């Protein structure tokens, strides 16, 4: 998963940014914009994100909408929400692209 503050490993693992990266990489592979070997990045992110989903289907650790501030503590202290729309939409889009990428994952597995 990716961190709330991408270059700060002491920040929490955030669901919406992970979903956005999974979607972006999978979409780029699916459209042929980048090599299909990069689908493994999306798959690893999807695997981690999927483990965060609660047994009753809820998605935790989604940062609420954020404005731009100069003080880094503002970003460290953003509230984490359950099922915030910022993360739900990204999660669904990421899942849709991972379904589209299924054949590419199978192809990569055959080559190993």
How would you explain this protein's 3D organization?
- It is built from five helices and two strands; from the N terminus they run ααβαβαα.
- It is mainly alpha-helical and 112 residues long.
- The chain has one domain.
- The chain has a two-stranded antiparallel ribbon.
**How many DSSP-defined strands?**
2
| Stretches with pLDDT under 50, minimum 5 residues | none
| Spatial shape | globular
Strand order of the largest sheet: 1-2
Mean pLDDT score, rounded?
Answer: 91
Biggest beta sheet attributes = 2 strands, antiparallel
Continuous helix count: 5
Q: In angstroms, what is the radius of gyration? A: 15 Å
Q: Summarize the helix and strand pattern as letters.
A: HHEHEHH
**Structural class designation:** mainly alpha
Mind sketching the topology for me?
Blueprint: H1 15-30, H2 39-52, E1 62-63, H3 72-76, E2 80-81, H4 85-100, H5 102-111
Antiparallel strand pairs: 1-2
Q: Gist?
A:
This protein has one domain (15-111). It is 54% helix and 4% strand.
Protein traits:
112 residues, mainly alpha, two-stranded antiparallel ribbon, globular
